[in-house]
Specification:
Layout (H helix, E strand, L loop, with lengths): L1 E3 L27 H13 L4 E5 L9 H9 L6 E6 L4 H11 L3 E5 L5 H8 L4 H14 L2 E6 L10 H11 L2 E5 L15 H12 L3 E2 L10 E4 L6 E5 L14 E2 L4 E3 L7 E3 L1 H6 L6 E2 L22 H8 L7 H5 L2 H17 L41
Helix pairs in contact: 1-2, 1-11, 2-3, 3-5
Amino acid sequence: MRISVTDRCNLRCVYCMPHGIPTIPMEEILTYEEITRVCKQAVALGITRFKITGGEPLARLGCPALIRMIRRIPGVEQVTMTTNGVLLGKYLEELTAAGLNAVNISLDTTDRRLYEQITGSDCLNQVISSIKAACKSGLKVKINTVLQQGLNADSWRDLLQLAKQYGIDVRFIELMPVGQGRFGTPVSNISLFHDIEKEFGPLIPDNKTHGNGPAVYYRLPGFDSSVGFISPIHGTFCGSCNRIRMTSTGEIKPCLSYGSGFDVRSALRTGDKNTTLTGKQNRTARQDQPCYTAQPEQNNTQFQQYRNHNGLQSNPANNSAQPNRADENVRRILAKAISSKPRMHCFDTAADDCPENRPDQSFAGMPLPAETKGMSAIGG
């Protein structure tokens, strides 16, 4: 279960959270206690592994405390995190002490100027330092990379060398037509696969378990680590997807391709199980739902609200209001969301968008999609 703990981020990546996007009011974001209650019900349904995401999860105050709260739930096997790495070094000791098992660090280039162009910040050195520190701490570390035509399409070479240097896996994720990503031009993982083979030699399938996601891994000659491909456009893994997502506002999303979700916040705060669907119950994207973000303001009322709603302070009214009924309803909503996961491939691309418009043996079982769904912005 992927859990977004905040809509805020300290970077402004052009394909994810550019400047000018409004923030969600603090009172609409789940407290840490509320998130923990949802996790308890998820464990009751058999979900035992959780990934903390954002926005940037470390932009929310007290994030290590949430890690500790979830790790203490009986039955939880693993808590991991996806981060941009800028603040990871600062909080690394707290995170490991809280029980964090692994970390995925988003990094799209090792070129300082290009990094600043993509993210809007000159923070590459902090990210590299965080990678080194995380490796030294014993955490399982992976790099997540999104390549785009006309931006960082050639960055894969340097990123593979970085992964080789530190002995960590790097995963190339095709840009999805979700939110701001619909304005970019993705690099096909099929093309990338062949480019890597030309540069480094034949890729050998790696069947070892590297994590909990849909990545397909290969070994590279001379590398102690592996390269992974996550191909939502040119691969079809939806039928075997084991992910469920919860946004920072308590919306459960069975799939990023869905314009609908299931509301657990109402159940948590009022015990109500009737209003569970958000948006339309179909796959069309919501045109009115932007991808939110903003940096927390340090010296104003909004930042004080941010502190008040950061989840470290309990909310007796919410936690005591019909606890049995509320928790039971949360569990029912989660079960309904899980049963609503798609059994067919959801992300599609036009045939003309990809020159490799054919099934490829290197991605066996993942034939190319055939038609366009016209994806648009989906929040969360």
